[in-house]
């Protein structure tokens, strides 16, 4: 058994070195986020949380946001649904982000006009390999709701 130990160790080490396939490490690029929606009665809520570096300069400028590696932008859009269409609707939005260690950030939201629509936007601090859980309370035109979602960076 002792004679086989060096041979076995070399086989294991050689097989482990083959795991990488000698591939070259890739540069990480920021993701665009995942736009989503939720309905609360006739109120439709579109929401997204994306790294500000994933935004091009003109979009960042239109939202009044500085692009940086340590911030993400929460975008909430409220729409009133009827049988055939959606219309912009005024409402209130309150949002909180919590990381996996339990640290909470209250997200200060402001309204931004984009054409005929008004979006609620706010910045949240992020770090590499961060995962945030968001709770967003919305109210508009008599409908209310809380949506919960998670994003990783």
Please tell me about this protein's structure.
- This protein starts with a helix and ends with a strand.
- The chain is mainly beta.
- The model is unreliable at 5-20 and 26-33 (pLDDT under 50).
- The strands form two sheets. Strands 1, 2, 3, 4, 7 and 8 form a six-stranded antiparallel sheet that branches.
- The chain has helices spanning 4-17, 57-62, and strands at residues 36-40, 43-51, 71-81, 86-88, 92-99, 104-107, 110-114, 117-125, 131-140, 143-152.
- It is built from two helices and ten strands.
Q: Mind sketching the topology for me?
A:
Layout: H1 4-17, E1 36-40, E2 43-51, H2 57-62, E3 71-81, E4 86-88, E5 92-99, E6 104-107, E7 110-114, E8 117-125, E9 131-140, E10 143-152
Antiparallel strand pairs: 1-2, 2-3, 3-4, 3-8, 5-6, 5-9, 7-8, 9-10
Brief synopsis:
This protein is mainly β and 153 residues long.
Fill in the keyword field for this structure.
153 residues; mainly beta; 6-stranded antiparallel β-sheet; 4-stranded antiparallel β-sheet; 2 helices; 13% helix; 48% strand; globular
Low-confidence stretches: 5-20, 26-33
Q: Rg to the nearest angstrom? A: 23 Å
Order of helices and strands: HEEHEEEEEEEE
The number of helical segments is: 2
**Topology, number of strands:** 10
Helix content: 10-25%
What portion of the residues fall into strands of 2 or more residues?
A: over 45%
First-last Cα distance:
48 Å
């Amino acid at each position: 058994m002792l004679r086989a130990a060096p041979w076995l160790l070399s086989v294991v080490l050689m097989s482990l070195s083959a795991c990488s396939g000698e591939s070259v490490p890739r540069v990480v690029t920021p993701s665009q986020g995942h736009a989503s929606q939720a309905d609360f009665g006739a109120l439709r809520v579109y929401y997204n949380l994306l790294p500000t570096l994933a935004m091009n300069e003109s979009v960042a400028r239109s939202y009044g946001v500085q692009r940086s590696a340590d911030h993400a932008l929460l975008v909430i859009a409220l729409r009133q649904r009827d049988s055939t269409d959606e219309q912009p609707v005024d409402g209130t939005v309150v949002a909180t982000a919590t990381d996996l260690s339990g640290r909470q950030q209250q997200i200060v939201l402001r309204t931004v006009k984009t054409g005929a629509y008004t979006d609620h936007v706010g910045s949240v601090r992020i770090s590499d390999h961060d995962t945030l859980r968001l709770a967003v309370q919305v109210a508009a035109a008599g409908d209310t709701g809380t949506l919960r979602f998670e994003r990783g960076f």
